[in-house]
Design brief:
The protein is α/β, with parallel strands linked by helices. It has a domain of 171 residues: Lambda Exonuclease, Chain A (Alpha-Beta Complex). The protein has ten helices and eight strands. It has a five-stranded mixed sheet. Strands 1-4-3 form a three-stranded mixed sheet, covered by helices on one side. Helix 1 packs across helix 10 and helix 4 crosses helix 5. The protein starts with 10 loop residues before the first strand and ends with a helix.
Length: 247
């Protein structure tokens, strides 16, 4: 386990999907991968991130909602640890920050706004019902899929779990009250001004499931990674590092 600064110059789970893109031949890297490799080259040259770290409301919302997802829905078998970055034990140029872990599972928690919440939650429900396959899911949600696969590889966990959460109306009212009356934002390492929008905005302008609606606000799906995908991702990261190091 290392500090977040250790992400600098490393291929990270959150962006690893870019390395899975291919050119027309299917053998070389696609444009997203080549751009990403050049960004890592710049970071290594400058010794710092090239991202100035602007904090958006969606990122702040996600961090706060991860906490409440854990509070309202996860049992003690989960350890919330999104602030910790892990480096691959063998390949030091590969790192990732998982949202949570279980004994044998890498866990990714997504707290999207309504449109993306619906799309991802519906896909997970279809996966659970056997209406689509992991290959179908991988095609439509490549960023989420490859992120959790990457973290499972780094942590040497045999299983992955994807969770999607948005608060119910009742939960959101409780969340707003806690933000107003307690130091929960400070506890999460969030400046008060960054999270004030949750209590300053009209409740109807925030993501939530209204009272009386039966659609689930919390959906999870646990699976064992496809062996070929684990091999493929390992190969792609090694290939990217070779390209970066040899130029």
């Amino acid at each position: 386990m290392v500090e977040v600064k250790e992400r600098i110059g490393r291929f990270t789970s959150s962006q690893i999907w870019k390395l899975t893109t291919s050119d027309r031949s299917g053998k070389g890297f696609g444009s997203p991968a080549l751009t990403y490799i050049e960004e890592k080259r710049a970071e290594r040259s400058l010794g710092r991130s090239i991202d100035l770290g602007a904090v958006s409301q969606s990122l702040t919302w996600g961090k706060i909602m991860e906490y409440y997802c854990n509070k309202f829905h996860l049992d003690i078998s989960y350890t919330l640890c999104s602030n910790v970055t892990d480096v691959h034990p063998k390949y030091k140029f590969w790192s990732g920050s998982k949202d949570a872990t279980k004994t044998d599972t890498a866990v990714e928690i997504k707290c999207f706004e309504p449109k993306n919440f619906y799309q991802l939650s519906m896909a997970l429900l279809k996966l659970d019902a056997g209406k689509i396959t992991l290959d179908n899911f991988k095609k439509d949600f490549k960023e989420v899929y490859w992120q959790v696969i990457s973290n499972a590889i780094i942590l040497n966990k045999p299983f992955c779990e994807i969770i999607i959460y948005t608060p119910t109306e009742e939960q959101l009212i409780q969340i707003r009250q806690e933000i107003e009356e307690t130091n929960v934002l400070e506890k999460l390492g969030i400046e008060p001004w960054q999270g004030r929008f949750i209590i300053e905005k009209d409740v109807y302008n925030l993501p939530y499931i209204p009272n009386g609606i039966e659609y689930p606000n919390f959906v999870k799906y646990r699976f064992q990674p496809i062996a070929e995908d684990v091999i493929f991702l390992n190969q792609r990261v090694l290939m990217a590092e070779k390209l970066l190091s040899n130029e």
